[in-house]
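Sharing in case it's useful to others searching the archive later.

Someone asked me privately for the predicted structure of VCBS repeat-containing protein, so I'm posting the question and my answer publicly. Question first, with the sequence:
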Amino acid sequence: MRAHHRIALATVTAAALTGGLLSLTAAPATAADSTTVAKADFNGDGIGDLATSASASYVNGRKGAGQVVVLYGTRTGVSGAKRTTLSQDTPGVPGGAEVGDAFGGALAYGDFNGDGYDDLAVGVPHEKLGSDTNAGAVALLWGSANGLTGKSAELLDPAQSSHDYWGHLLAAGDYDGDGRTDLVVSASTSTLYLYKGGFSSTGTATSRTTLNPPIQSGDDTYPFGPLNLTAGDVNGDGRTDLVVDGYETKTRYGWNTNYWLPGTANGLSTAAAKKLKSGIITGIGDINGDGYGDIVSGAMWDAGKLEDGTAVPDASTGGRVNITYGSVSGPDRTAAINQNTGNVPGGSEKGDGFGGELDLGDINGDGYQDLVISSVFEDLGKVSEAGMVTVLYGSASGVNTTTRAQAFAQNSAGVPGGDENGDHFGSDVKLDDVTGDGRADLLVGSDEDGGDGALTYLPSDGTKITTTGARLIGVKNVGVSATGTPWFGSIIAN
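And my answer, the predicted structure tokens:
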């Protein structure tokens, strides 16, 4: 689930709050895992695959039409050697590549049709339909023994005249616990659309309902709908819950408010929603191994004040991460970390953007979900906004900020490439088992080469993330044009 230019838009807000301390970057990315090692398996070989996009890429000369790239997992990880690159000009994919469509502006995976292969939901938030310039669209790409081939269906907008940017965000999960994968779709308003799993080959769902997460009196929503949607089981009842990262207005500018919506036998419940700590990007995973998913939200903005003098809540210099531990009743105790916490690598500095992206997965197979956090605007030496990612390990007491922490940048020994201005290493991050060994490996997106984009693969050696076997996957490796700024790797499916 991902919104096109989500980080850029969120950063505009953060900069307004802090007097412009954060710089602007293009293209976004999302995080969402359950309480187990997450993996997409589009070809059914038992090894995790990775879906990402270059949503601003040229396709047959059409600027910003967008492409989706699937990297298939192997015993040696992912590379450009075993992959599929798709666009709306691929036979079978709905629509056609047009200027500015942003195919791949949002991604979510799950077995939507129940055939044993994971499928990929693709948002096309700027699709033009008739005279509606930003109507949006959603395509369902079906998995098979050959992976994603272009065979697909279209999920039509049921209320095109009432909003724009259909497919702005996507979130897949089993929200009613019936064993079938459901899909939540957002547009430019606070209303969410929940499709019950068991999709037909033409994209017809078993049922469709609408959800309206709580908006308090005087509040408003982010101008393009919610900031982010994250699926995971927080209360351990076997049903997927949903965290909605929203937007709350106070005076001219504001900060976002997040809500937890529990899954029930009838789907997601807005009546039982609970307000959470704020943050623009969220991940869910069982950090302390108690069987309940923990909610981790990144609040990347710097401490500051609104125009009326009100302090920005949940903010600290350089950004912070808010952790809300799960329980049988849902969200429970909270904690917060930043780069000044314990032995977390680095130090909190204005504009670092710590918490700009994050994800969870079990790197060492100990049953505790581990956490990767990006400092997407981190300056390293004289290199401006090079970016850095931090790995913190789970334990019975929660996130371990005392020992075992790791940090990686492109100047780290063994990491391919080198630090460059504006690389934004960590523009998206993903922990996923792409080797089939039951351990989560690390994938890091960056704005390599002025916005061409790239993915860095850092495998797990069974106990930790290592640079042995690391590789850089760029546009030339995956069949994406380097014309313009394609932003390959800035959106990774969850």
